[in-house]
Amino acid sequence: MSETMFGLAFWVTVPFWAAMIFLPRWSWTQRVIGSPLIMLPTLVVYLVLAVPVLPELWAVVSTPELAEFRGFAGGADGAALLWAQVIAWDLFIGRWIYFDGLRRGVPPWVMAPVLLLTVLLSPIAVLIWFGFRAVRPARPGHDRREYESAVGA
Description:
Keywords: Membrane, Transmembrane, Transmembrane helix. The protein is mainly α. Helix content is about 80%, strand content about 0%.
């Protein structure tokens, strides 16, 4: 089961990533990505993996020690569980970068590589995005209607 859930954790996010990267200005993309519920499929995978190992998971996260964490993550259940958590977090970060890019009027050809890097190495992508934000402030009113309608503001 762990191997199946491991793969599923990623594949349930692919449509959202594809929409943000390849169809960033499409109204349906903005509407769908505007909902934080896009993370729900991955979080369901996480819960399916977490419930059977909840006592071990709790022990590892409540009193973290490297050896115990390594032992937990080294097993198939622990690795799949942590993968689902990472994938959900990456999507959360990618969603934020996507909407921040819209607000700043960032062209899709700039956003696509940043979002792709977010899928692969989100901590590095976030650092790059913070640097980008420092040199490109938000543009008042730019894409504001689309952004606000997408996020329900």
